[in-house]
Amino acid sequence: MSTQKEKINKVVLAYSGGLDTSIILKWLQNEYQAEVVTFTADLGQGEELEPARRKAELLGIKEIYIEDLREEFVSDFVFPMFRANTVYEGVYLLGTSIARPLISKRLVEIAEETGADAVAHGATGKGNDQVRFELSAYALNPSIKVIAPWRDWQFKSRTDLINFAEQNQIQVPKDKQGEAPFSVDANLLHSSSEGKVLEDPAIEAPDYVYQRTLSPINAPDVETEIEIEFERGDAVALNGKKISPATLLASLNDLGRDNGIGRLDLVENRFVGMKSRGIYETPGGTILLAAHRAMESVTLDRGAAHLKDELMPRYAELIYNGFWFSPEREMLQAAIDHSQVHVEGKVRLKLYKGNVIVCGRESDKSLYSEELVTFEDDQGAYDQKDAHGFIRLNALRLRTLAARNRK
Asked: What residue ranges define each of the domains in the chain, with the CATH number in brackets?
């Protein structure tokens, strides 16, 4: 962690253009007398990014990076994660977690391009994101300096921040004059809402918290049938049309939104040690997960499929805790990717009032054999008498134990 005594000449700031990061920008200029470079990433959060450029220019910034990273985000981060069917604590699809290593990667790269000796982020000292940003940055550049203003500055409240903004001619949006009702993070994979009205986990989240989905109750009373095609474990086509990873995920988001799919109210265990309550919406990801598991069900060998399911919680924890660029995550990724070589074919699904229903799957690489499982004459493909010895051998130790215990 940087301190105010360290000499910083130039710093690259992860900049959204919002009030908090605008305050951080000015604070960095005042506190370090350093030149600031801003980096704003388009990860599909659904907001216009040009206002961030104008705000940075008003604050005297000369080097402004605004980049569309949606395709890289989905193809190099989201899709590899979905090959593992990754969920944290059984339900969370890691929408925030998986975005942080990409942002950190570009922060470090821009620092090298511009000759900056530090990077800065707006994550608080209570959350997971500070860990994710900084572990990723250090993994990519061990000598980089990281500034985390929320851990260093003197501000104690939202009022302090607004007073600082007004003193430094930073525009304060009208709706930020009071306490914000909750905090929102969004990208192409999901939106998350935390804090304020959501802090009591016993109280149901108000309807206005939900950003990306219709309520399942209000979703149309009609099924929507879709088909997703996979190659090597990645979705490559929707309803017979091949499209790019980001376009495909955006299309699934629209379908999920309209059918009330992907809502999650979760109390999770943060890496820093506390529990937190969040409202997550992952409409397209929820559909993609169901489709991918369905594709694997006919193309993956039992041993590979079960081993993947055993490895997945560890893999999910690594991503959640910020270890995307760790050797152990890369080792697991290699095993997961190897398992996906034959995961190809088409899955048909019905979307209905919050539900994703698999209704068909087909693949040229299928391991499913109608000849073996049929209740009709299997023409000698499977000799049922073989099961007798199979069961006797597997029962041997159990019978031995039972005989001892009955004495």
From this structure: 10-77+96-180 (3.40.50.620), 185-300+342-362 (3.90.1260.10), 379-406 (no CATH)
Report how far residue 133's alpha carbon sits from residue 153's, in angstroms, rounded to the nearest whole number: 19
Tokens of 42: 């388009």
Q: Which one of 70, 83, 100, 257 is the catalytic residue?
A: 100
Residues of the chain with pLDDT below 70 are: 1-5, 174-181
pLDDT by residue (tens digit) across 35-76? Answer: 999 999 999 999 889 999 999 999 999 999 999 999 999 999
Asked whether 251 and 243 are in contact (CB, 8 A), the reply is yes
**Is 348 noted as a catalytic residue in this protein?**
no
Distances 333 to 72, 75, 338, 402 between C-alpha atoms, Å: 17, 14, 8, 43
Active site residue 265: no
Whether residue 129 lies in the annotated active site: yes
Check if 339 is active-site.
no
Q: Which two tokens stand for residue 126?
A: 């209570």
